Amino acid sequence: MACNHGDHSVQFDMIVAADDKMGIGIAMSLPWKLPTDRKFYLDKTNKVSPTKKNALICGRLTGSVSQGEKNPNVLRFILSNTLEQKPPHADYLCKNLDEALAIIGSPEVRNVVDNVLIIGGYAVYKAGLESPQLRRYYITRVYGDFKCDAFCPDVDLTKFKLVSDPDIGSHVYEENGIRFKFEAYERI
Ligand SMILES: NC(=O)c1ccc[n+]([C@@H]2O[C@H](COP(=O)([O-])OP(=O)(O)OC[C@H]3O[C@@H](n4cnc5c(N)ncnc54)[C@H](OP(=O)(O)O)[C@@H]3O)[C@@H](O)[C@H]2O)c1
Questions:
Q1: Domain membership flag for residue 90
Q2: SS3 (DSSP) at 179
Q3: Structure confidence at residue 168 as a pLDDT band (50, 70, 90)
Q4: How far apart are CA 2 and CA 23, in angstroms?
Q5: Whose CA is nearest to atom 47 of ligand 1?
Q6: What is the pTM of this model?
Q7: How many domains does the chain have?
């Protein structure tokens, strides 16, 4: 599909669960089992208007571990500079975030896309934080150090502010002995 670079009309959110050290994964999987966080993720990524799909953007590794989640509500964009062919679990293979956003903003795709979310990992979140098209960064703060080997960037509080969200509240949850809370940030 042709790319219309420079289309700045597409806004997106990012969603992550991170520990005290901004750790997000270990040995290519999540370090915790938190059903309420899982439900929050699925609500954000799967809830969609009846005739539309959500666009999920992720790096090659996150794409390979979440491939079982392929579902009809989602268009999956994988970012990679080494893959030569689109993996079977992906709908689009892109060289960078701008290319993915340009495809999403193109006339053919724009009309079928509802929400656009970056779902990881590190370099994709980093590119997202640098983009003026970022609307909201959802971070589930998981208390503790889970000795992760994959991380996400934290927000720069000189550039982003915590925002209140009726879906989120300030409740601290505890599941499987792990405490966590939901936060949402927007650019100042
Ligand atoms: N806790 C959470 O919310 C959460 C969310 C997502 C993932 N995870 C965990 O995080 C880990 C995977 O994340 P990760 O950071 O290691 O890897 P990743 O971002 O999923 O994949 C890294 C690869 O993606 C490609 N890539 C990333 N950013 C790109 C960009 N801006 N432009 C072009 N290509 C880009 C590159 O592929 P090439 O090398 O092919 O160029 C890069 O080597 C797993 O453990 C997973 O379980 C956790």
A1: yes
A2: strand
A3: confident
A4: 36
A5: 29
A6: 0.95
A7: 1
